[in-house]
């Protein structure tokens, strides 16, 4: 037992911080864990006593206790998970390192607004510690390091008509690409660019390209595009 805590409270502590507890649900928030441990210490228990009874190492308990250094108006935001409306435990521990309370609150707000993960929050805190820049500036820098994930649609077609292959073989790359662009325009394919070879062509585009490709019919696209390229060649020859 721990002085200052009931058997029920000790049990709730153990369930909240023990191995695998995330699978069953935790009855206490990280800050509540810290408050229970702090109460036990105030009752005369050492940190080692608490760690032994709660079945967690002292360094782990120390991380919880650091949460009590957060201002009251931030503590209620701390939770175990990474929901959009909370500060995860690891992020909250990083915030404690910020000495200036105004900066701490600003970083907490930025973490919620931009969905900063633990690594990004740590980077913001480190930049604040190592420079005289403001929160907005360092947050912009960290956000600028994010990988932008952008979905692209790719279509690769084959040119099987030998006469077309021969005609394209006489064109420069710029001319071939111009033919492809004109052919795409004829088919009303939008949001894409492409490269035309003598035997193959490749189209790469965004979501609007995906939509227009679906409208044309992906299974028909290769044949239709080749026919439009032939039309462009004929028009050029007639001109």
Q: Topology, please?
A:
Layout: H1 7-17, H2 30-42, H3 47-54, H4 58-66, H5 72-75, E1 78-79, E2 87-88, H6 89-95, H7 101-114, H8 118-130, H9 135-144, E3 153-158, H10 162-169, H11 173-186, E4 192-196, E5 200-205, H12 207-216, H13 218-238
Helix pairs in contact: 2-4, 3-4, 6-8, 7-9, 8-9, 11-13
Question: Can you tag this structure with a few keywords?
Answer:
two-stranded parallel sheet, 9% strand, 13 helices, 239 residues, elongated, single chain, 59% helix, mainly alpha, three-stranded antiparallel beta sheet
Portion in beta strands = 5-15%
Query: How many helical stretches?
Result: 13
What value does the Rg take, in angstroms? Answer: 31 Å
SSE sequence, one letter per element: HHHHHEEHHHHEHHEEHH
Tell me about the biggest sheet?
3 strands, antiparallel
Number of strands: 5
Class by helix and strand content? Answer: mainly alpha
Low-confidence stretches: none
Spatial sequence of strands, sheet with the most strands: 3-5-4
> Shape from CA axes?
elongated
- Report how far the terminal alpha carbons are from each other: 96 Å
Average the pLDDT over all residues and give the rounded result: 89
- Binned, the helix content reads 55-70%
């Amino acid at each position: 037992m721990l002085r200052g805590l009931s058997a029920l409270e000790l049990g709730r502590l153990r369930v909240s911080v023990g191995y695998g507890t995330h699978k069953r649900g935790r009855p206490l928030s990280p800050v509540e864990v810290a408050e229970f441990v702090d109460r036990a210490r105030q009752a005369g228990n050492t940190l080692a006593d608490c760690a032994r009874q709660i079945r967690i190492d002292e360094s782990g308990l120390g991380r919880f206790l650091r949460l009590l250094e957060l201002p009251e108006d931030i503590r209620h935001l701390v939770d175990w998970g990474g929901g959009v409306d909370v500060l995860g435990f690891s992020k909250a521990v990083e915030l404690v390192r910020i000495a200036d309370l105004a900066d701490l609150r600003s970083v907490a707000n930025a973490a919620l607004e931009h969905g900063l993960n633990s690594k990004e929050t740590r980077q913001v805190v480190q930049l604040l510690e190592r420079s005289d820049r403001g929160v907005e500036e360092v947050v912009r820098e960290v956000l600028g390091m994010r990988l932008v994930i952008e979905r692209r649609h790719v279509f690769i077609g084959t040119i099987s008509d030998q006469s077309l292959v021969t005609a394209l073989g006489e064109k420069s790359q710029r001319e071939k690409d111009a033919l492809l662009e004109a052919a795409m325009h004829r088919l009303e394919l939008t949001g894409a660019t492409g490269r035309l070879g003598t035997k193959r062509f490749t189209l790469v585009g965004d979501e609007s390209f995906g939509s227009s490709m679906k409208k044309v019919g992906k299974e028909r696209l290769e044949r239709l595009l080749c026919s439009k390229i032939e039309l462009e060649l004929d028009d050029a020859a007639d001109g």
